[in-house]
Amino acid sequence: MQISGVTISTSIPMPKTSSSSVGKTATDDQAVINFSPDSFSSLVKQAGQMPEVRSEVVDAFKSRIQAGSYPTQDDIAGLTDLIGASIVQQARAGQSSQGS
Question: Mind giving me the DSSP string for 83-98?
Answer without folding.
Answer: HHHHHHHHHHHHHHHH
